[in-house]
Write a structure and sequence with these properties.
InterPro entries: AB_hydrolase_1 (IPR000073), AB_hydrolase_fold (IPR029058), Serine_prot/Carboxylest_S33 (IPR051601). Keywords: Hydrolase. The chain has 2 domains: about 1-180 and about 255-335, Alpha/Beta hydrolase fold, catalytic domain (Rossmann fold), CATH 3.40.50.1820; about 185-250, no CATH class. The two termini are about 35 Å apart. The strands form 3 sheets. An 8-stranded mixed beta sheet has the order 3-4-6-5-7-8-12-13, sandwiched between helices. Strands 9-11-10 form a 3-stranded antiparallel beta sheet. A two-stranded antiparallel sheet has the order 1-2. The radius of gyration is 19 Å and the shape is globular. It is about 35% helix and about 20% strand. α1 packs across α11, α2 packs across α3 (about 145-155) and α5 packs antiparallel against α6 (about 220-225). By secondary structure, it is α/β, with parallel strands linked by helices.
Length: about 350
């Protein structure tokens, strides 16, 4: 269906909207939630509190491995609502399906290989293709956090052209910025990927998959979350992601390090790291290193690092403590409008 929306400058434009077997996409007013597909760009959804107002600020929201944009709808609606409280401030949240994930899975033509560099380049291509202004904020969870870091690094190098500039804030939710070494991991992600590789491309039902994962010893919450990553295919269910491509992205995520970016952040960029209090992904050396970087007082010639701890939360920050996460993020984003 075609829907009339307005861009940042208030100019009407037509957005082709598709809801493919996804009734949950049809959110109630006053929020606008639209999804867009194009052979040339990533799939994405937009959330805006007041559809009839031109937006003044934009945040890109990036999910993690085997996730999708829809995982972040609830938090993004809450964040947009908390920010769009004055007549002069209207935030647009753009929730992206990264390559090999969600509705971007079926889109052809992305540059190989499937790694962090190209996943970030997809964002630059999307911004250029849609002729958007550069986002004010980029938010990434887990693997999406490293895609966000790569995006900032490439923006600083002007890899995407003059139109795509550095965001003002970059948020990394529970994602270690350096290499992820196997000895610092419990191997759960690897076990999940190996299990999914052993399964056929279609399964009888969501219930069957969840029970199968439970029988293999995975937790109920993880098994049920894996079950949400299915889509209808005839009378059966198939994956809502490209598993082989996602595995390549995971390998790149583990190998890439962005410590140099954090040690020398570009001028006027703040990189905010949110560590979940109960997350098992952080070792003491990494925590100490981040605290040291955050405590440094610069001379204004470079950006800055801030570190935040989200209490009462494991890795799934937007599920475990969305209210606490909102209390960390919202005030800083509000400061951009002042």
């Amino acid at each position: 269906m075609a829907r009339l929306v307005r861009n940042k400058h208030g100019t009407p434009c037509t957005l082709l909207t598709r809801f493919l077997n996804s009734p949950s996409s049809l959110l109630t007013q006053p929020y606008r939630n639209t999804s867009n597909r194009s052979l040339q760009t990533l799939a994405y959804e937009e959330i805006q509190v007041n559809p009839n107002k031109p937006y003044t600020h934009t945040a890109l929201v990036l999910h993690g491995l085997l996730g999708s944009a829809r995982n972040w709808r609830s938090f993004s609606r809450s964040l947009a609502s908390s920010l769009s409280t004055s007549p002069s401030s209207e935030w647009r949240m753009v929730l992206v399906d990264l390559r090999n994930h969600g509705k971007s899975t079926d889109i052809q033509g992305f540059d190989p290989p499937d790694d962090m560099v190209n996943a970030a380049k997809d964002l630059g291509d999307l911004i250029n293709f849609k002729n958007w202004d550069s986002p004010d904020v980029v938010i990434g969870h887990s693997m999406g956090g490293k895609v966000a870091l790569q995006f900032a690094q490439s923006c600083g190098n002007r890899d995407y052209g003059e139109n795509v500039k550095l965001p003002k804030q970059l948020w990394v939710f529970d994602s270690v910025p350096g290499e992820v070494k196997s000895e610092n991991s419990d191997g759960e992600v690897e076990k999940v990927l190996q299990t999914l590789q052993s399964l056929p491309s279609t399964v009888p039902s969501r219930k069957w998959l969840v029970n199968h994962m439970l029988e293999l010893g995975f937790s109920k919450s993880l098994s049920e979350w894996i079950g949400t990553n299915l889509k209808k295919s005839g009378g059966e269910e198939t994956w809502a992601f490209n598993l082989d491509g996602a595995i390549q992205m995971f390998n790149s995520y583990r190998e890439m390090s962005y410590w140099s970016l954090l040690e020398h952040p570009p001028k006027e960029l703040e990189i905010a790291i949110v560590r979940a209090e109960k997350s098992d992904r952080w070792d003491a050396d990494v925590i100490t290193r981040l605290k040291r970087l955050a405590s440094q007082e610069g001379d204004g010639s470079a950006g800055k690092i801030s570190v935040h701890v989200l209490p009462n939360s494991g890795h799934w920050v937007h599920v475990d403590n969305p209210k606490g996460l909102l209390e960390i993020v919202s005030p800083k984003l509000k400061s951009l409008a002042s």
